[in-house]
Amino acid sequence: MAELTCIRCGQTREGLARPPYNDDLGREILEKVCASCWEECKRMQVMVINENRLDLSDLRAQEILERSIRDFLGIGAD
Ligand SMILES: [Zn+2]
Questions:
Q1: How far is the CA of 73 from the centre of ligand 1 (A)?
Q2: Residue 56 belongs to a domain with what CATH number?
Q3: Torsional class of 60: left (φ above 0), alpha (ψ -120 to 50), beta (otherwise)
Q4: Is 25 a domain residue?
């Protein structure tokens, strides 16, 4: 597991073992976010899903969640 300088906390820490998603966002998270910030991000996602009652089979809900992940981690959209 490689160390990286995390885009969110600014510290050099262990990253993830594998990308959390099979898309561009997953690859960016693997390259830029430490494992501990990713754990925080997952807790944030649960809150966002519950607060907005997101149904993740719905494309719009997936977009809302992705935007909140990018905001939380400080990864800009393309
Ligand atoms: Zn971090």
A1: 9
A2: 1.10.3880.10
A3: alpha
A4: yes
Q: Is residue 78 part of a domain?
A: no
Domain extent, residue 48, equals 3-73
Q: How many domains does the chain have?
A: 1
Predicted confidence at residue 2, as pLDDT, reads 83
What spacing in Å lies between the alpha carbon of 18 and ligand 1's midpoint? 16
With respect to residue 54, please indicate whether it lies within any of the assigned structural domains.
yes
Q: 75: which residues sit within 8 A by CB, 6+ positions away?
A: 7, 25, 28, 29, 32, 33, 69
- pLDDT tens, position by position, 9-18: 999 999 999 9
Residues 37-77 have pLDDT tens digits of 999 999 999 999 999 999 999 999 999 999 999 999 999 86
Q: What is the pTM of this model?
A: 0.90
Distance (angstroms) between ligand 1 centre and the Cα of 7 equals 7
* Ligand 1 centroid distance, CA of 9 (Å): 4
Q: Is 4 helix (H, G, I), strand (E, B) or coil?
A: strand
The Å distance, Cα 64 to ligand 1 centre, comes to 22
